[in-house]
Amino acid sequence: MSVARQRLVETARDLFARHGIPNVGINQVIAAAKVARMSLYNHFASKDELVLAAFEAEAARRRQAIEAAQADAPTPRARVLALFDVAEALASEAGFRGCAFLNLAVETAAPESRGHALARRHKEWIRDNLAVQLRQAGAAAPEALAEQILVLWDGGIVGAYVRRTPAPLRAARTAALTLMSQAAAG
Amino acid sequence: MSVARQRLVETARDLFARHGIPNVGINQVIAAAKVARMSLYNHFASKDELVLAAFEAEAARRRQAIEAAQADAPTPRARVLALFDVAEALASEAGFRGCAFLNLAVETAAPESRGHALARRHKEWIRDNLAVQLRQAGAAAPEALAEQILVLWDGGIVGAYVRRTPAPLRAARTAALTLMSQAAAG
DNA sequence: ATATAGATAGACCGTTCTGTCTATTTGGAG
DNA sequence: CTCCAAATAGACAGAACGGTCTATCTATAT
């Protein structure tokens, strides 16, 4: 992997996530990456291909952040809550724009596009991660509960973005705790 | 209100919601509305102004849909669930693109923009509507619970969009029921 | 019947954007 | 040293878009 390509992907990942795909032009990317225009088109057939590579990198980054936060957690329940810690940390950053993958799905209109599929895969990874923790916690129906907590997570993130307050994420965390307690008791 | 203006707002509301703001050009709007280019610019200073008017109309439409669904519901709890019925009906339509207001916030990058504020107001209206029902249902902390159920609603909608299945909305509904039962019992 | 305000069609302008082409330079392997 | 692949700068094309301008038409109210 050439250094020019690495710089392109990393720069594009940052710019697309922070400002949105249609708001970042090719010229911006190559200027920020300090790379020639033709270097981009030697490595990627089009802007769309660069977008896909950038969001694959973003997905890997997010998975690592989640796993790092979970590594410190002693119990399955704490590993579930770690996801909300990651989201709150993200939401407190300047230029927070919600979930990059939900935005990707919105900005690449076609539902059968590869960008949409990438977003879907990322969400399924999170749901499966949650299901693993919940199974370890002994929940009665770990998959169903994982689906519910993923909904809370997504809703908390988009709510925090649109309302510009961490309140939805706090509410999501509280609700997740309630659901987990209910699942353990029932 | 002139007929040309009405047709513009209604057409723009439909097109922007179904295809996304950046994907719908002025030419498309005026062609679909069968209105002259200058009629648009006589009523609206710019595309942004048309976008705002269109989404104000969309917000009114959504509020009406929710209130209509709630009108048939006999109990406060049923009126809360009516919101999820509305969302599921929306998600089952062809060309479903998630929540138009979350998309508006994403597509109008600036968080201090009027579009962003419009989306925020719409979400707050839904939260307040939920709080009214939950207070009537005798929940211990209706505002906090309303916040949690709004999170479930948003998360269910975006999940249904990105994963192209009603599963997240069903999970959201189930979780809302659990939280309401918990709040009544506790 | 006429005046007036609004609607119409369409040419036009400037900007922005993606993507191509060319000519030149760099750097590492044989 | 030489060669070759990759990187570079920048001009250029082609298209789409938002927005302006003009000249014509239509309908309604007096």
Short description:
2 copies of one chain form a homodimer. Chain A is mainly alpha-helical.
Could you explain the architecture of this structure?
Two copies of one chain form a homodimer. Chain A has 186 residues and is an all-alpha fold. Chain A has one domain (3-185): Tetracycline Repressor, domain 2 (Orthogonal Bundle). In chain A, 78% of the residues lie in helices and 0% in strands. Chain A is built from nine helices and no strands. In chain A, helix 7 (114-136) crosses helix 8 (142-163). The radius of gyration of chain A is 18 Å and the shape is elongated. The termini of chain A are far apart. Chains A and B meet through helix 6, helix 7, helix 8 and helix 9 of A and helix 6, helix 7, helix 8 and helix 9 of B. Chain A binds a DNA duplex (30 and 30 nucleotides) through helix 3.
List the helices and strands and how they pair.
The structure is a homodimer of 186-residue chains.
Chain A: H1 3-19, H2 26-33, H3 37-43, H4 47-71, H5 76-91, H6 100-107, H7 114-136, H8 142-163, H9 167-185
Chain A binds a DNA duplex (30 and 30 nucleotides) through residues 2, 4, 25-27, 35-39, 41-42, 46-47.
